[in-house]
Specification:
The chain is an alpha/beta fold. The protein contains 15 helices and eight strands. Helices cover 42% and strands 8% of the residues.
Length: 372
């Protein structure tokens, strides 16, 4: 009997200890428009520059009831992560720092900026491609982070060992800007290893500063994006996946990026950091579920046509963006996967979040780290 009681106590203590290790007190985020919760909005205000279309209605209409700088009709994956961990929505770094009270900083800060690239703006400018939105590359975001939160290594280490680090999604815009500038896919593919190297360098940097859990997302299936479907609209049926309608070669490109990223993450897991949780978030396959079976997930208006746009087979017109006076918005965005042809609806992001953080689309599985 005594042995059974002792065993029960030990089991309870082990569970309490395990839960404590997964009790993240903050989220630190880097990335682009898939994670930006207001940095681009505040940058535009500071520099008095022309606001991009996603700072106007109907952006934000579903949850916030106003534009917040998020590129969707509502919440993003990072918002659902925060809610799932019992944390407040993560505030943007850019803006009045006095508004970021000490308690809020300790619960997380978001450095992601819409339009951001992994590689520096100078890399793309040397190739004749300018970034129309921002020059806040991943290295710039890391610089902000170290200046604001990590003035000393001890400050950083204490905060980061209890933080969840979201390293992206980043890298997608390195390809988007180039492809939309007319660069051929083989040329763009040549610098994928440079993008991966930059992401891995950032992962190594935050680990050295004290991070214990890092989530590194892969690229979405860009061949299913309404914007690319409109851009490369073609009568050749062989170009499209007959199950989804997505562009095959663009999705293969996204898979190539993801394969290289996973390979490099596995290397640093094996040879560098056995004490750190380095988690690959499979955004590609979590999203592909929705493209393969949209109606099963409640997307009765399909996965390829945008809710907000300006006509055409995919309701996307790059000259009339969502938010423009002549654009139109669907009445029921929850029945669409695509919000504006580039970004997804809140409903899609919610389901992708569940697949990632409550399901099996993270490697190792995120929920295996946080069993109660």
């Amino acid at each position: 009997m005594a042995i059974s009681i002792c065993f029960a106590i030990l089991l309870l203590m082990s569970r309490i200890s395990y839960a404590y290790e997964c009790n993240y007190t903050s989220i630190i985020s880097f990335g682009n428009s898939l994670a930006d919760t207001g940095n681009i909005k505040n940058l535009v205000a500071i520099h008095h520059s022309e606001p991009p279309h996603f700072l106007f209605p109907p952006y934000g209409e579903t949850f916030f009831h106003k534009p917040t700088g998020r590129c969707s009709n509502g919440r993003l994956i990072i918002d659902f992560i925060a809610e799932g961990l019992g944390l407040p929505l993560i505030p943007p770094y850019v803006g009045d720092k006095s508004n970021l009270r000490k308690k809020e900083v300790r619960q997380g800060v978001n450095y992601a900026v819409a339009g951001a690239t992994a590689l520096s703006s100078s890399f793309h400018e040397a190739r004749g491609v300018s970034n129309p939105t921002t020059n806040a590359s991943l290295q710039v975001q890391l610089k902000w982070f170290k200046q604001f939160i990590c003035p000393t290594s001890s400050d950083c280490q204490h905060l980061l060992q209890h933080s969840l680090i979201l390293m992206g999604e980043i890298g997608g815009n390195d390809y988007n800007h180039e492809l939309r500038a007319g660069k051929p896919i083989n040329e763009v593919k040549s610098f994928v290893p440079l993008v991966i190297k930059t992401i891995i360098a950032a992962v190594n940097e935050v680990i050295k500063l004290g991070a214990k859990t890092i989530i590194v997302p892969g690229n979405f299936p860009i061949g299913c994006s309404s914007s690319y479907l409109a851009m490369y609209n073609n009568s050749d049926t062989k170009m499209y996946d007959n199950k989804t309608g997505c562009i095959i070669w663009l999705n293969k490109f996204a898979e190539y990026h993801n394969q290289l990223l996973q390979r490099e993450l596995e290397k640093i897991r094996k040879f560098n950091y056995h004490h750190v949780n380095i988690i690959y978030a499979d955004y590609y396959n979590a999203a592909m579920q929705l493209y393969r079976s949209p109606k099963e997930f409640g997307f009765l208006n399909g996965a390829l046509k945008a809710c907000c746009g300006a006509g055409g087979p995919y309701n996307f017109n790059e000259t009339v963006e969502c938010g423009a006076a002549s654009s139109t918005t669907c009445a029921d965005p929850d029945t669409y996967v695509s919000w504006d042809g580039v970004h997804l609806t809140e409903a899609a992001y919610r389901l992708i979040y569940r697949s990632l953080f409550k399901g099996s689309y993270t490697m190792p599985r995120f929920n295996s780290l946080c069993r109660s």
